[in-house]
Amino acid sequence: MANLDHNSAEALYSQIRRSLLDDIRERYQAGAYLPPEQTLASRFGVNRHTVRRAIDELVEEGILERQHGRGTLVLNAPIEYPIGKGSRFTETFSAIGTASSLVLRKELIDARGGVAEKLGLHTGAPVLWIETLRLLDERPLCLISHFLPQHYAELTLERYREGSLHSFLAEHFALRLRRSYSLVTALMPRGNDAQLLQMSQRQPVLRVKSLNVQDPGDEPVEYAVTRFRADAVQLRINP
Predict the structure, then answer these.
(1) Which domains, from first to last, does the chain contain?
(2) How far apart are CA 102 and CA 130, in angstroms?
(3) What are the φ/ψ torsions at residue 155 (nearest 5 degrees)?
(4) What is the pLDDT of residue 239?
């Protein structure tokens, strides 16, 4: 019998949802079926209603689908994305499917707060802001806000239209970037992020704040804020 914490403030169905999600990530491929609800209820020591509510959550998130007369189908297990010194979206996901990106915004803005601090700029200094939507097989996976010093603005505003930003910087500025650090936080989507990611406003995203520096050296080149669909991606932290 699976262990549930009956004294936790977290509802039992929510604990079961997390446990099922771990099972899907580790044991199931897309196209497989979960055990029947009664079997799962016996495993967790709860009634079928509680298991059904947990499954309802995963159905709403697009991870499971109920098929009449057949059972509960696993649609797409969360994709593993490594967070390391050199991990890049396009290179990582091109091995899985068709990775693509849409440039939603390119403009010069005044550097404020964390953006100015991370890039070592004075408050109010011009900074290039690029907003991209990254997709795998036309399925939105994450939104990225890229911030770069003004030095890279003119050519990037003119010529960068799609694909890997880091490949563009390497080609046009002979830049090799290294991830200095990343901070990961789970939070609810803000603004129109949920709409762009085609997800529920009530489901969390994984926000990753990263600083990329020139390699060799440590000159800050890009501060990026990525919002991943938490139901579609799991992050693997590489030392």
Answers:
(1) 12-74 (1.10.10.10), 79-237 (3.40.1410.10)
(2) 11
(3) -70, -40
(4) 65
Half-sphere exposure of 200 (CA within 13 A, CB side): 13
Distance CA 230, CA 227 (A): 9
| 235 neighbors 206 (Cβ within 8 angstroms) | yes
pTM across the whole model: 0.72
Instruction: Supply the angle between the helices 48-60 and 37-44 in degrees, to the nearest 10.
Output: 110
Q: Identify the weakest region by mean pLDDT among 17-21, 27-31, 87-91, 142-146.
A: 87-91
The radius of gyration of the chain from alpha carbons, rounded to an integer in Å, stands at 21
Mean pLDDT of the chain: 90
Please report, for residues 52, 188, 224, the alpha-carbon distance to residue 23 in angstroms, rounded to integers and kept in the order given.
16, 24, 31
CA-nearest of 8, 13, 11 to 56 is 13
Q: Are 223 and 127 within 8 A, CB to CB?
A: no
Mean pLDDT of 85-95: 72
CA–CA gap between residue 227 and residue 194 (Å, rounded):
10
Q: Look at residues 104, 129, 100 and name the one whose alpha carbon lies nearest to residue 196.
A: 104
Q: How far apart are CA 86 and CA 80, in angstroms?
A: 15
